[in-house]
Structures
1.
Amino acid sequence: MVLITGAARRVGAATARELHAAGWNVVIHAHRSFEEAWALAMTLNQSRPDSAQALQADLLDAAALERLAQAARDCWGRLDALVNNASTYYATPLGQVTPEAFEDLLGSNLRAPLLLTQACAARMEQGSVVNIIDVHAHRPQRGYSAYTAAKAGLWALTEALALELAPRIRVNGVAPGHMIWPTGNQLNELQQRAELARVPMARLGGGEEIARAVKFLLSEEAGYITGAILPVDGGIRLG
């Protein structure tokens, strides 16, 4: 059984569908998008009864993370994997960084994955954790200093927890590049073409590319892989 955070939409939902198709029971976490999470769970249950659940939690509430981990385990009496996918993403140009924005970005992208992994690890006999990071954690974008710092911390945390939790639990990461246009994308057609020109593969990846990478890292085929960060970015990091 796998718990996936932020799985109501976009990359998280694609990951839930991919893992479910591979035979996993999935717990779909959401906060503000719970109705979409519930609808996705019901759709998955139509193809395989009692194989998907939806749970709601605010990941910025530290106490809620323990409750989420326990509720996820209670769904089927076991917890085998965690995918830390939920992420807040927006620009914070220097001179406009507020304590509230920094805490929000750090909380969703670093603190929550750490505390939720801690809570889940205490409820796993053995298993695997996959963190969704970002190739820009090591190739910063102008104006995104707070987000970049949080994702860079998650990169380091992935490696640190791989040491601390081995051999019982493997911990790896997937580092996406341009996968899906951001929510509320305001880029015109010319600007979109310019962005795609930066990607050697000349296209957006889509959520399914991330989902397949997560599926691999959770599988037995990756049983000797821990502390690895797998770039799924169409080669944009090479530019």
2.
Amino acid sequence: MALFDDAYAADPHPALAELRQAGPAHRVISAAGVPFWMITRWDEARQVLADSSLSKRQPVDQLPPQLRSALATQMLLRDPPDHTRLRRLISAAFTPRRTQALAPGIERITDRLLGELATVPEPDLISGFAVPLPFAVICELLGIPAAERGPFHAWSNVIIIGDSSAADMVGAMSEIVAYFRDLLARKRAQPADDLLSALLAVVDDGDRLTDDEVVGMALLLLVAGHETTANLIGNAVYLLCRWPDQRKRVLDDPGLLPAMVEEVLRMASPAATTTYRVTTRPITLGETTIPAGEQVLISLLAVNRDPERYADPDTLDLDRSDGGHLAFGHGVHFCLGAPLARLEARIALGRLLNRYPDVQLAVPPQELHWRTGMLMHGLAALPIRLRS
């Protein structure tokens, strides 16, 4: 069975269904030739996500010193109690109130981008809307000046796509880290009302974040934050074009927008997999035992369509009562940016449907190109026809 090639990217679900039926965990090989265990069933995925014996630490010894010091302290790659401390301090700055305060700006950016889409006969929703919206929002959140944002999307693409060389990935991450170190120095000298300034200022019982910890968090938010939300928006529009009955329901009742976003997160998870965990002891999943020292990741695309968890899992159903998807993870590493992603998606999709209620695909679905790489699940382009 071929995994992670172009055909798999275009439609991974038949292969994942076959794996899921065969068992909860499978030893597979990544496109880069790295062996790992992939979890394909919902119950076992929850078990793994809640199991503190699986470590998120990854080796960074081979990286350049400046990059190594930032990644080694990044919350995503830490275990409790280090992770607990980092999450407490970061959450003190990245509050629900700060997230909600972004709503008016998200609305303004959305309306501007939607207006620009209308100037093109068959615009690409991905490059014209799904990518620039969350990218602008993350930059606003972090306090990156507009004149300095140009290279960031190219850098994050190198990191996320997964088919770049190791040297290119290290180069891109090094560029971002160097930029944030310089920006932090400026924020310390002249604080502003942004998340970077707040992270530098937060103190909890005498404890505060180091510069490396702030840089690591900024890198995580910038790369993971805007790429996943871009996929969420693009996947949602794609599904609503494929399921016009569900789109009509949202148009008739905008109160269904939150349910629609959750169902898209389940049915077309913007992250195809979690990041790696490493077993520190043998773990048993069903009839499979994974030895200690093995890399494990969860196929979110597989577990969020597990028929043992969801009735008619391949159907977009806004009335679904068997919710509880794992698109944002579970347990101590549950995505800290989930409220912002949900807010952006609700605003973006609500205003798009209100302005262009009869949006259509401009090409047959089989002609669309899905991004390759193991980590993300999203379209490389989504040509649409706008009909108001």
